[in-house]
Amino acid sequence: MLGGGQVDGGLVRSEAGLITGGLALSADVAGGALPLDAITTLPLGGGSHMEGLQLQLNDSGRIGGSVTTAHFVLASGKMMAAVRGRSLMLADHATYDLHPGGSIQFSESDTLPIGSGQLAATFSQLVYQDTPGVTLRDGEVDAGISRSGQGNLEWSGLVVKGNQSGSYQKVTELPTDEYAVILKSPSGTTEKLVAPNRVMMVDSVPIAVNSTATFDDGGYLANAILAADATVFGVPLLGGTAVEVNAEKSMVLVGTIGKETTIDGVPYSKGCLAHLPPTDSDKQTPPCELVTSLAVRITTSNDLLAGANDPLTGKPDDIWLDIGPKAWMISGLGDFSRGATTTITLDPTNVDGGDCSALTPGNVPLYVGDIVKARVEKKGISLPEICGVAEGPDSLVDTGVEIPITPSAALSDMQAQIQVQRQALQIAHDAIDKLATEIGQLQKAVDDADAIINQGSKLTQKVADVQNTIVDVQHQITDAVLKGTDKICHNETISVGICILDPPSCLVSRLVCAANPEFQKLNDRVAQLEKDLNNAQADVAGFAIRLQAAIATKTTDFQLEADKQITLKANQAAFDAETAVFNGLNSAVSDLKDLIDHVLPGISIPLPGQWKPDSITLVVNGRDYVTFANNYGRLQQGHSEWENRVRSMSDGEYFVQGLRVNITKPGCVPTDIEKECGWDTFLTTPFAKMRGFSGWDDLKLGDVTVTGVLRHNPSPGEDAYVSFDLEVRTVDVGGRTYILGDGSPIRDARYVRIEYLHGSDERYDSSQENWKPGDTLRVTGPAKRDRDRTTFFEIHPLGSSNISRIAQ
């Protein structure tokens, strides 16, 4: 229906009364309808206008030609069908306009026009044919609409906005043209998507606009970001936060509480991260509760050599307790000897900031829900300026692994100290005492072999002779120690090369050892002992039977060792002064161990320093929170950490929750004189860390993307790495995005270290960029745990494209 306007043209009336001719039209449109295809028809309303200068009226009364200008206002209150079964109740201000430079072509032979335009259809209600239980209200459909030739109507750039009523149940119900697929499962189902234009309600979860959502293999929602506060499966949750659900079972698994509530008798406060259903530990100590007191109770096994103490020092190696956001060194705070139970009180607000800590101390409150693990790690032997070496030897008498060294002054001193200590301290009374005790305790290891050794007669006289010889050698060693006055070895400082600029740096310490007649006599005796042992090993099966019988009758062989230990304790000072005869005793003990190894092949004999905790209990606010029994075994080199999760969670969340709340101590900072520093890293990285000593453990999470604010100046080292410490803002891991910072359920700041093998990329220190504290970086790479000192998580980006500054 045309309103005011103008029509020009030459029309001809035929004898049959039919009117034809050319027209030029410019007119307002007051009503009517414009069909675009068999489904979609535009209901026209007042305010529309169209122009066509080359129109043709045919004898059937149809107009053909081009409309070059058209602005159609769609009639409010009318229904309009749209793509994929949508039906719209049009609202005010709905329009359709030709694309710039476009036209609508009307054909005498085709009832449908050809051309393209832009639809902006506001609506009061939108109904989906496939999911009638889901409607949208007060929204808009925007799309490009075109038709060419005899083809179908095409919709492009579809954007649907509106407030959803009702809820989808599975991903297959979602309108496929309203979201973008990010990831599909191997079976072809949609696993991860993003809805860029409107809030989608799935299983009563309002998914935030332009946020990712993941679905399980059954098509049910698994993870999403909440668009607003919502009650999901009866749990009030906070908008803008992540939620993890088991939609098939109508359960919230992880979510941030939106208001104070009680779930299964456990109180939860607003902003608290809840892992549901509550565990027995949660019922004992609610996760939203502030930790005001924290302790750990550890019981050490009563098994043979289960204690953590080094036999030479009488002290344990570094032992660390890690609960996720915080960690403390506990080895100097309790008793970790065989059979002992010790309770250690910790400061829940702070962390260990001593020389052996990698973290900067600072008060950060701890909540019960922040505790995600109980992880204990026993380091290897301690070295100057390095402290306990992760995966290092378990004690100073363990010579099975050689620690790689560096040419730095500190590590050179360390080398000399180790060499002197191995000879000087190994003859100390404490070592002899401990080793004698451990020989006596080998009876239990042999007893445990009952299942594989038949009952037999006592050890033959030949074996008894070997044992008596061992006792004789040990007595001679004792006499030699008591009579000796001069040390075999001493340190001597010499100059290496010619040094002009810094003479002290050319001074090195070396070990000088002199011959000792008493030691030679002992060596002769040891040789005789070895000969006797070789003869004694002729019949292995016989020795096995006789050995068990000897143990069963509790012969005095081992008791002699215990008696000798009492004697040795009375002469502690004298033994501490000697340095040369320990090798004789060591040989005798080694021979006895060889005998046991040949008699009982395949039976593991524990070594000193290989700690075996029986159980660990975290005591929170005066109440036992969690207890873990040890089915992991001894903590020893190559097997030195025992980790238990407090509650079930995804590996990605476990990583995020394990980020430290205290930033790592800054590395060295370049100066105008020294652009790069940390020469020790030149060799410690390739020859120590990359060989597993205080090295990097791959967390097997795939690529992890982190954005965060740089908090320390970049710290380049001579190992071609540059280190950054970021205060984390977001983490993308395991198909999910975690948001940290203000308003996040993950309380307080969290930090991650970046170790970038930068090569020639020096943007961090270039005239073009020069990254500074306060800049925001985005980093992608594998996540690793640095086993140095406290341990902490790192990201190791590969290539310059995986690390960039995104804000400053």
Detailed description of the structure:
Helix 3 (429-447) packs parallel to helix 9 (582-599), helix 4 runs antiparallel to helix 9 (582-599) and helix 5 (517-536) runs parallel beside helix 9. The model is unreliable at 399-432, 448-461, 484-488, 496-501, 536-564, 566-593, 599-603 and 669-690 (pLDDT under 50). The chain is an alpha+beta fold. The protein starts with a strand and ends with a strand. Helices cover 18% and strands 35% of the residues. The protein has a 7-stranded antiparallel sheet with strand order 15-16-19-20-23-24-27, with no helix packed on it. Strands 5-6-11-12-10-7 form a 6-stranded antiparallel beta barrel. The longest helix is centred in the middle third of the chain and has 23 residues, at 461-483. It is elongated.
List low-pLDDT spans. 399-432, 448-461, 484-488, 496-501, 536-564, 566-593, 599-603, 669-690
What is the terminal-to-terminal distance?
Answer: 60 Å
Strand order of the largest sheet: 15-16-19-20-23-24-27
> How many H/I helical runs?
11
Largest sheet: 7 strands, antiparallel
Helix content: 10-25%
How much strand content do the residues show? 25-35%
The coarse silhouette is: elongated
Helix and strand content put the structural class at alpha+beta
CA radius of gyration is: 40 Å
Q: Count the E strands.
A: 47
